[in-house]
Amino acid sequence: MNSVSPTAELLVSVNNLTVTRHNRHLVDNVNMSVQRGEIVTIIGPNGSGKSTTLKAILGIIQPSSGSVTIQPQARIGYVPQKLDINWSMPLTVKRFMRLTHRHSDTEIDAALGATSVQGLKHRQLSVLSGGEFQRVLIARAMATKPDLLVLDEPVQGVDFNAELEIYRLIADLRQQYNCGVLLVSHDLHVVMAETDTVICMNGHICCHGSPNVVTNSPEFQDLFGARGAEALAVYRHHHDHNHAPDGQVIHDHDCDSHA
Predict the structure, then answer these.
(1) How far apart are CA 172 and CA 219, in angstroms?
(2) pLDDT tens, residue order, the chain (259 aa)
(3) Angle between helices 218-231 and 160-177 (to 10 degrees)
(4) Which of 30, 25, 26 is nearest to 182 (CA)?
(5) In sequence order, which residues have a C-beta less than 8 Å from that of residue 104 and are 6 or more positions away?
(6) What is the pLDDT of residue 204?
(7) Residue 236 confidence (pLDDT)
(8) Are strands 148-152 and 205-209 parallel, antiparallel or unpaired?
(9) Strand order of the sheet with strand 205-209?
(10) How deeply is 132 buried, as exposed, middle or buried, from its count of CB atoms within 10 A (0-12, 13-18, 19+)?
């Protein structure tokens, strides 16, 4: 796990962020931050506000109250959860890399090389595997050498082995580019071992803290294998509160992380 200095550069600060739609809180009173060199992973069930939080941070949607402060001049790379592409339309990886930004060949080659898919530069997107496509998406986000890499469920639609490799890739990119990483995970219990901070959401922040790496559990190693034990961490939590129909918390909560 990377150790983030207490004096590390603050890239993003979220204060009392609330997003309300149709009189219902999608996100309620969220406070969090991301520093340079830090990996922050957000977990939670479907509909818990993970993607809404990311979009509010990025300015894609406007919060109902609260604030998001991003360091001036900070470059942000974004890997969305879903991307609508007409797969019947001829589109090479190189052309895809230039859809929203006129990256040079040198920038494209460097980004594809950083994600180990440089050999796919002239390949059609429609023939890529799920893992290859996710690597291309990450390369597209890395082409501008971001200070903050934001990924919304980057392992969605890939098999378990490809999921492990993408998690390793993200950790390597953090080291190589010294960027902050804000990651939404689709899994409630399994997160990157390299994660510095785990945030559990269910419309609000239920709990947060450092994940504990499970390396000695025979059951875990039987399930995931020795390399899986090195690459993953388990973050267990419990809740001691309820939600009102409008999404507000009506009881105190107490969430802990356990090995």
Answers:
(1) 28
(2) 455 555 679 999 999 999 998 888 899 999 999 999 999 988 777 888 999 999 999 999 999 999 999 999 999 999 998 777 777 788 999 999 998 888 999 999 999 999 999 999 999 998 998 889 999 999 999 999 999 999 998 887 788 788 888 888 999 999 999 999 999 986 644 566 678 887 878 888 877 777 653 333 343 345 445 554 454 454 444 455 554 444 455 555 444 443 3
(3) 40
(4) 30
(5) none
(6) 86
(7) 46
(8) unpaired
(9) 76-79, 148-152, 180-184, 39-43, 197-201, 205-209
(10) buried
CA–CA gap between residue 169 and residue 176 (Å, rounded): 10
CB 32 within 8 A of CB 67: no
Residue 170 CA to residue 149 CA, distance in Å, equals 9
Beta-carbon contacts of 55 under 8 Å, excluding residues fewer than 6 positions away, are 61
Task: List all residues 6 or more positions away from 100 whose beta carbon is below 8 Å from its beta carbon.
Answer: none
Do 42 and 185 contact (CB within 8 A), yes or no?
A: yes
Q: Which residues share a beta bridge with 232?
A: 192
Yes or no: say if 43 and 202 are a contact pair by the CB < 8 Å rule.
no
Retrieve residue 164's tokens.
């492990």
Question: Cβ distance 86 to 124 under 8 Å?
Answer: no
pLDDT for res 194: 79
* Torsion sign over Cα 75, 81, 85, 91: positive
Residues in CB range of 170: below 8 A, 6 or more apart: 39, 138, 149, 151, 154, 181, 183, 192, 194
The two tokens of residue 238 are 């419990």
Q: Which two tokens stand for residue 210?
A: 């450092």
